[in-house]
Amino acid sequence: MSSMKKQFAETSQSSAVAENITEDIIIDILSRLPAKSLMRFKCVSKRWLSLISDQCFAKLHLQMLSLETVAPSQKIIKSNPLQIIDYEALDNDEVNDHVVVESHDLGRDEPWGLAGSCHGLVSLAVYNGFLVYNPTTRESRKLPASNVVATYECFHGFGYISTTDDYKLVHGAFFAADDGSVECVLEIFSLRYGSWRRVPSKDVPLLDRVGIYLNGAVHWIVDRGSGYRTERAIIPFGLATETFEEAIPIPKVEGVLFEGVVIHEGCLLICDVTSISFEAWVMNEYGKKESWTRLFSIPIDGFPDHNFYVIPIAYTRSGKIVFQIDVSEMILFNPKDGTYKNYPIEEHHNVESAIYMETLVSPYIGHEQ
Amino acid sequence: MRYLALPLLSQNLTESTARAQTLSLYLQLSLQVSLSQRNESTMSSSSSSLPSCPKKVVTLKSSEGETFEIEEIAALQSKTLENMIDENCADTPIPLPNIKGKILAKVVEYCNKHAEVGVDAESLRAWDAEFVNVENTTVFDYILAANFLEIPTLLDLTCQSVADMIKGKTPAEIEKTFNIKSAFTPEEEEQVRRENQWAFE
Q1: Using the beta-carbon criterion (under 8 Å), do A47 and B183 form an inter-chain contact?
Q2: How far apart, in Å, do the first and last CA atoms of chain A sit?
Q3: Which family does it belong to (chain B) (predicted)?
Q4: Is the preceding peptide bond at B97 cis, omega within 30 degrees of 0?
Q5: CB 3.0–4.6 Å: which of A101, A154, B45, B168 could bond A173 by disulfide?
Q6: What is the pLDDT of residues A63-89, one digit of tens each?
Q7: Which residues of chain B are within 8 Å of residue A5 when distances are taken between CB atoms?
Q8: pTM confidence score
Q9: How far does the CA of residue A23 sit from the closest CA of chain B (Å)?
Q10: Cβ A17–B171 below 8 Å, yes or no?
Q11: Is A68 on the interface with B (CB under 8 A)?
């Protein structure tokens, strides 16, 4: 960050500040503000506009977010139609029963699905390629289509690699080979280098639509083995090595089939809603299967009927969990007493949702616009 | 509020100490080490036992010439003062011409409180919250003092306090708080506002 300090000191204008507050103090103060406030403060002066738009500052701001003891400001993004949901506002008792929703219009690039979320950047699957979008700054970057045929059987992941300061989008699909076996084709797009590359992929287990990013890898829950020896596990895809890494076994609990993975306080959390209970476990130490700890196992009475899925999306600051139920509802579930409030959501067809942080990170990191 | 040894931005930002108590303990440990190093010639045993030294005091002089005493152990929270102590420049009163007496007194109070042993985190947090529960201009004075004296915990506390105070403000209110004369023409400002209009909703 010393280069940033130098840059601003050299071009120091006479924007008089109260009591001789210097540039680096202003930067310190601003880096603690929520992204939304910073977007507003672009109007304050040319100096502030230049600072807030600077990607070095965005990185500093992101680092500050990860140091916070309180969960950083996050929202839910959903597709079909593209909307942002302020789920913390849902949790606020004063708000009545309508969901606090903001529509985002991307015109012809209306996404059909989400492809992953990381550092405030959301990757959207559109009809002729992908979009990397920051819903807070509304900046978007169109990526070309990969050579993998996009179908509903494809899978996606998106995340950050600290060693190269880069973001990668993973796009893969399964298809039946001539000998009847299932093969996988995998391509990766690097935001910094700007192109798709085919990556070798052998023995890839069947993956669900979208993986969850944590610690430089994208994670899916998979079934391993076959028949009676089927085991559920979490399989990470390392974004730096571009390979699938060793699967992490998940606890076997009677009557429970873990399907949802989310991030809770920086750890992977898996959960399931059975007909009678809500079960959630968290892996306190990444990669160590012994560190799986039961977080909740509570009886639930009258959970909303669902036909297809119950997907956990977010954990509110007060400890409630937001679930997407099938395609038409979101519920705010209170694990402490098993109660919930439901909120209808607007859906045109297959709704996908994800959580994202409010940051100033640009999809054009390092790359020519 | 969080406590982290937030160094000046030119340094590595990823380091963080979560509690002021830990920081104060670290400072006491480093004081023990430096004390035992200074007394190397007179000490026969290892550095595991603290020699019984009289409590050293540092004198600070405000811009108006008023003097304030602070125990060396508390003064070590200021990197500036620590450097002066290490270079043996702290035996005479240290002039601080850009810090008023009113502010310096409070900074000394802060350092003393954070050098105390056995204060639980919760009450320290509450004490800190009260410390910054003052007028904006005073908080800015604390920031400047903490910046000059390089007291990371105080800088963190005061900058966070200002951030919390301004996050909901309008750009016009910000200009007043920071005494900024906007360099935008009305048309330029309108354009920036329009490009970011959703941030105002």
Answers
A1: yes
A2: 23
A3: Belongs to the SKP1 family.
A4: no
A5: A154
A6: 998 887 666 788 888 888 889 988 888
A7: 9-10
A8: 0.80
A9: 11
A10: no
A11: yes
